[in-house]
Amino acid sequence: MTVNRLVALDMPASVEFADHVRKAWDSGDAVFPIDQRLPQAAKDSLVEQFKPSVLIDRTGSVVNLPGSEPTEEGDALVIATSGSTGAPKGVVHTHDSIRALLNMSQARLHTDSSTHWLLCLPVSHVAGFSVLARSLVFGNPISILPKFDESEVLVAAKNGATHVSLVPTTLNRIDPAIFDTILLGGAAAPPDLPANVITTYGMTETFGGIAYNAMPLDGVEVRVRDEHIDVRSPSLFRTYRGANTADFIDGWYQTGDNGTFANGVLQVFGRSDDMIITGGENVWPSAVEK
User: Fold this and answer.
1) Which residues touch 25 (CB under 8 Å, ≥6 apart)?
2) What does the alpha-carbon distance between residue 288 and residue 282 come to, in Å, rounded to a whole number?
3) How far apart are CA 290 and CA 282, in angstroms?
4) Cβ atoms of 37 and 80 closer than 8 Å
């Protein structure tokens, strides 16, 4: 019987990284990209927690690890997230959940397999990995940078990259006009964005943005219960690795975010844990910051 393995990749985004992902997927294995910004002790802790079978580093060295645990058929990705608790969780995505998000995104953006994407965010986060996945799943042309660098981003745009995912801190370091479309997520968006910047709402558990400019992608359902946001989407993760439960109720995922949803528009106030009660009123830090 074939055992499906988890392959840990301790390396930055690169053509070699993409090749290792492709080989793992072709073999029925899943991958676990390790955040290159973590100190070694934190990397070791994640490896101990998620129990991969193999670890491959940036030199191509392959180490077989003891005490590993297999993955399930169809699993493609384990990606670490701190969530709202600060404790790392291993979010397990399947090939189906990844493809579902990519299809919904492509339909909303009116892109196709010829669209040239730039990858300049960490592949240990879904914003970066989803750009790579577009190339692996759909065959999109891709430019890959190991990390964000303004000059290299400009070169990539001059060499044909038209679409990119960024976070607000990186958006502020470039001229947005060099791209046709910029997906922006990861933090609250600054005001007065250019027309080619699309704000996204999502999380690791949804494989990234499931709402663009506050409007859910086709196929995504949203409900709000007492300001608590729940979502149901074909892009939802399967489970947490090593955990017996996930935050599902009848297929709805409890995001831990608060907001409103009316007339097809989703407004997010912030994390439930972030809300401050003062004088009997709910106060959201994001509103105070603005």
Assistant:
1) 31, 76, 95, 136
2) 12
3) 16
4) no
* pTM, two decimal places: 0.91
pLDDT at residue 285 greater than cutoff 70: no
pLDDT level of residue 2 (50, 70, 90 thresholds)? confident
Structure tokens at 235: 């892009």
φ/ψ of 131, rounded to 5, equals -65, -45
**Those residues with Cβ within 8 angstroms of residue 105's Cβ, 6 or more apart along the chain or in another chain:** 111, 130, 208, 209, 212, 217
Asked if residue 288 has pLDDT above 50, the reply is no
* Residue 243 in this model has a pLDDT that exceeds 90: no
Number of separate helices (H) and strands (E) present in the chain: 7, 21
CA angle 128, 38, 134 (to 5 degrees): 15
Phi, psi at 25, each rounded to 5°: -65, -40
The alpha carbon of 270 is separated from its chain's Cα centroid by a whole number of angstroms, namely 18
Query: 128 phi and psi, to 5 degrees?
Result: -80, -45
Residue 186 has what pLDDT? 87
Least Cα distance to 11 among 19, 286, 3 occurs for 19
Position 245 scores a pLDDT of 67
pLDDT value of residue 282: 46
**Cα 178-183-184 angle, rounded to 5 deg:** 105
**According to the model, what pLDDT value does residue 79 have?**
97
- Note the pLDDT of residue 1: 64
